[in-house]
Each structure stands twice: as structure tokens, then as C-alpha cells.
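Example record for the data management plan.
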Amino acid sequence: MIKFYIPKGVLRRASVRFRASVPLQGMRKEDGFITKVNEAKSGELIVLAKNVHYEDINLLKQKNIKYIFDICDDKWNKDADLYNYACQNANLITTTCELLRSKIKQYTDKDSFIIPDPTEREREEPYFNPGKHLKLCWFGGRKSFSLFDWDKVFSEIKSVTDNFTVHAVTAKPDRASKRLGHLIEQKKLIMYSWDFKTQGDIVRQSDIVILPLPQDMPLVQVKSPNRLIDGLQQGRFVIANKGVDSYEKLKDYVFLGNIKDGLNWALNNKEQVLEKIKLGQQYIQENHSPETIGRKWIETEKLV
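Corresponding structural encoding:
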């Protein structure tokens, strides 16, 4: 039986929700986790992730318990020795996309099994009817918030319209927005502290979700599409950068490119926007529902 290792205190983290908590809901096994590796029992298949330690791996080896090493980021520049050790001793490696799978093969000469992230949102009706004041939103982690040049993003938006506000939801927004006081003073940027409900409320009140990212960072290139999926699932159109491997599978349902071009296209193609959202939600149901992803995790039991 598969069991996810979820240490205490990390349940709110996006990686834990998408790689453990939501799949367990889809598997109808909400109690299918352990909080300490020494709780693992003979016959169980343990899923370890980026919170892994050498002692966890060694303990499972000593107890002759099989484990999966789940990789959702390229951490080899920081933790190469640990990641190599975890991969070499794993009974199976899982990951999120083809590019990360190829990197794992390059680093370790071991293959991996792709399991995408699930959606954690209920489907909402597609909606796109922007008024004179354009309401944009962004959501994500504090690190993601600091990855790109917000002034450049605002310059792109202003080239389309000066009548807009960006509502941004992230952890510890006061810290994240320290260098952007001028945008906050202009009331062009409004910050909110992240929680699941707040993100949902802000997306629901917005016209378009914008998710800019730098395109020249290896860490960014293997990012999950979970934020694009969140936006589509809530019935909102999403504009995001090219250059992220997993985003390409959603290219028919979102706009991949710069913010300026995306806004111009969306505002001049309202019916097509709604059709893209509708088709995107169908794709999500078929490929990213908790039940679909839960079945993929169950499939791993036959692969070890």
C-alpha cells in the first residue's frame, strides 16, 4: 500500500498539497500518509519528496521497505549528493514533466515516471467580460513573486491600458513587495496574504490571471503548470510566459507570450477567450483531476 511521507508543519506548502494531499483525496485515502519515516511498515510503499534526509533513506533500506523518490524541482545545483543518493536507492522515481524527466536521466542515468500535478479547485463557469477598469491578478509563492521585473510587467500592461489594477496574492506580502512601494502608492498593485480561500476570491473577482516568469532560469523551465490550471479551473483566462516545458500542453487554452500581446489578443477576441477556457477545463478534467492523478499514483505500485 502506498503511503506519503508528510512531516508535521508542511501541509500548507504547495508542493505537499499537489504531490500528496490532493492525490490522496483522489485515491479516497485521506489517511494514507505518515509524519515520521520510522512509522513505515513492511509491505508499504513510501513516497519521499524534497524534504528527504539521508537517515530517512537509510532507515527504509535497513527495514527493507520500498520507496518512491518524487522530484518536482531541479535541485541538483543545491543538493546533488543527496538527490543522487535518493535516486540511486529508490525503487521508482516520479516527476512532473518531460523536461525534468530528461534532466533526471542526465544526472542519474535513471528513468522516471511522470505524474502531473492535480487541480485542487472546483470547476467554475468560464467568465470574461472586462469593463473599462481591467482587473488583473497574480498568485504564487514569495520566491516566484521576486523572480521577475514587476516594473517591466507594469510597463507592458500600461502599453495596453492605463486603467487597471493588479491584485497579487502571496505569502508574507509586506516582505515580498518592499521594492514595489511606488506601484502600491499608485494603487496599481494591491497585495494580499495567501490562503486558499483568498486566492480563490481574488481570482474570482478578476478578469484575467497573469503569470509572468523569467525564461532563462533552469528552475523556472521545469515548473509545474498548477497555477495555470488553477486559473482555468476557476473560469478565468490565463496569460503566461513561454519557456516552461509543462505549460506547452496547455498552449491551446491559455496565451503563452508576453503580457502586452496576451492582453491585446484577449481584449479583441472575447468569444475565443471563453472557448479556450471551456476547452481547458475539459482538458483539466481528463488529465489533472484528483481522481485521474490518484489513479496514476496507484499505478506506481505495479512499477516497483
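Summary line stored alongside the record: The chain has two domains: 2-118+289-302, 134-287.
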